[in-house]
């Protein structure tokens, strides 16, 4: 409940009190190009439902940091896993395959003493080998994606205006 209250307060701080309700707020006028200081810029010019884009360098440098604090970066991320969620997500995806579920069923069934056909450890070997090989393959693919994403995100972009 407190988390919801904090979120409401943050939203109220972002929206001006005179802002209209609805899905669209008309664009606001641009501030003058050369203000005498940061206090000359009205707060309502940089809030609302539309995102205001300000150049990093120039007269609005301090406002840039204040406004963009809550925004995420525009880096590309195509990786499927992180270091924290690799094992659970990979096992979850692998057990969606019918063959892996079948081998898991045989392993569980072999642990029941009445139905035991082989030694318990021997029935686990094929499943563990398959899971390990596929996990290693997925980790390698994801690491390649991570390296490629870093390479793409470090490229210099050109912005044309006109």
Automatic annotation (TrEMBL):
Keyword Transmembrane helix among UniProt keywords: yes
Annotated P-type ATPase N-terminal domain residues = 67-123
Source organism per entry reads: Conger conger
Set out the biological process GO terms recorded for this chain's protein. phospholipid translocation
Transmembrane segment boundaries: 99-118, 124-140
Name the UniProt record assigns to this protein: P-type ATPase N-terminal domain-containing protein
In its keyword annotation, does this UniProt entry include Transmembrane? yes
A molecular function annotated in GO for this UniProt entry is: ATPase-coupled intramembrane lipid transporter activity
Q: Name one GO cellular component term.
A: plasma membrane
User: InterPro entries this protein is in?
Assistant: ATPase_P-typ_TM_dom_sf, P-type_ATPase_N
User: What keywords appear on the UniProt entry?
Assistant: Membrane, Transmembrane, Transmembrane helix
